[in-house]
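Example 327, ligand coproporphyrinogen III.
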Amino acid sequence: MWFMRQAGRSLPEYRAVRERATLVEITHSPELAAEVTLQPVRRHGVDAAILFSDIVTPLEAIGVDVEIRAGVGPVVATPVRSARDLRQLREFEPAVDAPWLGETVRLVCSELSVPLIGFAGGPFTLASYLVEGGPSKTQARAKALMLSDPATWRALLERLADIAVASLTAQVQAGAQAVQVFDSWIGSLSARQYTMHVLPVVRRLFDGLAALGVPRIYFGLGTSHLLEPIGSIGADAVGLDWRVPLDEGRMRLPAEVALQGNLDPVALLATHQVLDAEVAEVLTRAPDRGYVFNLGHGVPADADPGLLTHVVELVHAHHGHRQGLTP
Ligand code: CP3
């Protein structure tokens, strides 16, 4: 088990580092990035670390003018709206463009006793920031480009998939033992749109990672209507949000695909009693094998870290019980 966004603002020790350095400064400093990657492992005893970085970090490394604005999210100075604008997106060579990436992973792995998960942004989600110029609730401009200029759209997504493959390959070569692709915003697409305009590129991304030999996880938010197409991208595991019960997800995804999820992060803002019941409900519906406990989305910034540690204890107690390790 681990938590998406387990490193970050819910932890006072992260906020202390953030007082001295910006998010970009942290990601560019192997010492600081390693420190904040390790913080949730030390505090909560989760079973995996996730590299501290952001989905837009590789874009910034190849010169895209992108800024992560507090309380807003990534903002892109020159949005991508035409074939000409694709020139901003050159090939990503991690060893040259982002030497800190491999160095951070090596430093983290030298201090970790649990696996490190590497990650990258999914092609639709990164394209949405690039086309919109910033966060958007509907991804309307991105979807309009997708429908009106499918060739430019496809070229954009393919470049983003290649950037993700380059980044994830560098992370695995430096020691990451699993990878997750965050394609958070795909839920705004219909099944037909996803299948026609996104899925072939996601499949290419996962094919490009196959030779690395590590588990590959795919996560999107609000994907109840997309589970069948997602079942064919070639991922080893699929992360579900709280909208789909895990037992339903189990029936709708191929048997060889593991599941990850799906406690509603809002449960962390409720009472202890409610939280315990919500965790129990997730565990009741979880498959016996091929399962990773997680939230259905990231840890809320105002979550009580003590409650997160409590969730880790509950899940570990349940797991030990099922394996017959505790009386
Ligand atoms: O612990 C971890 O999970 C690793 C760190 C991580 C961050 N971003 C650090 C971060 C990960 C995995 C991400 C992924 C990410 N970034 C996603 C996909 C996951 C998801 O939430 O759906 C997305 C969509 C982004 C884009 C992004 N970056 C947003 C929307 C924000 C929030 C802006 C805000 O202030 O509300 C960021 C900034 C960001 N990335 C923060 C952290 C810890 C918070 C900003 C800070 O500390 O200044």
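Summary: The chain has a mean pLDDT of 97.
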